[in-house]
Design goal:
Layout (H helix, E strand, L loop, with lengths): L41 H10 L2 H10 L3 H33 L5 E2 L2 E2 H25 L9 H9 L2
Antiparallel strand pairs: 1-2
Helix pairs in contact: 1-2, 1-3, 1-4, 2-3, 3-4, 3-5
Length: about 160
């Protein structure tokens, strides 16, 4: 089913104007009205939202108006953005500890390194699950990020 190119609302293929925002729709049935114009289905676009983390999430949030894709784009942006910021903060805090005497060190093993590896593992798991669920056209909700994603995507 086609979507409005302006607001993302589902519209009938023979509709001249969007019932939600009033934007003119493509009159010819052969011309798509959304980013699917490039042949990109919702599930593939949802998968691509997670491909390069928060970067592709931001890109798809800005260019795609379909609600399913916007949700996954916003969820990718929130999840990977937060994990990236957390990784930077932990790296700075524990990196400074190593510079000033290594008080967090225990025979070459640091608490900061352990936390960074756990964040990396969380990123990998969320990345794989997010792409897999989006490709299955499932609106998988990551616990904290999904609520923020709903607000960003405009539910």
């Amino acid at each position: 089913m086609p979507h409005c190119s302006k607001c993302g609302t589902a519209v009938a293929s023979d509709t001249a104007f969007c019932p939600n925002c009033g934007a003119a729709q493509s009159a010819s049935p052969g011309v798509p009205t959304s980013p699917a114009a490039a042949g990109l289905s919702e599930n593939v676009a949802g998968l691509l939202c997670y491909l390069v983390g928060w970067i592709t999430g931001l890109i798809f949030l800005l260019i795609d108006k379909r609600p399913f894709v916007r949700f996954h784009a916003a969820q990718s942006l929130v999840t990977f953005g937060a994990l990236n910021i957390l990784s930077i903060i932990i790296g700075m805090v524990f990196g400074m500890g190593m510079m000033f005497g290594g008080s967090f060190s225990w025979t070459g093993f640091t608490v900061g390194a352990l936390l960074l590896r756990l964040i990396d593992l969380a990123c990998l798991i969320v990345w794989i699950v997010g792409m897999f669920k989006a490709y299955q056209h499932e609106r998988f909700r990551i616990p904290i990020a999904a609520d923020l994603a709903d607000q960003i995507a405009g539910k």
